[in-house]
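Please think about what follows:
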Amino acid sequence: MVLLGACGGQRAPARTPQPETFAVAGPSATGTRCGTVTGSLGSARAYVREGDVGRREATSLLTQYFTRLTPAEEAKPDGAGPVVIGQWTCGSDAGAPLSAACSTEDDRQIATTPA
């Protein structure tokens, strides 16, 4: 059984098509939507890809990540990051800083896609 991440401290549902499950950047990646975060380049949708991560934790962490990016980092051709925030390491896709992903050593993962 494969489990998806859940927001708000809930256990993740089994992988079945559900309205709250969306595709997230990357092949075969899905996640549970947690809300919207804003960075200097615009807004992004926040998701939990894997593990037990609360909605507030995910949106706060992603907001911190976007706040820490400098214009030079946002413009890097190979993507922004890595940026370490506590237990998390975050980075952005090449040419798409609003498509970001963060992970921990215990396999929790959160991500964004442009809003």
Observations:
- The first helix runs from residue 55 to 68.
- The longest strand covers residues 30-39.
- The mean pLDDT is 78.
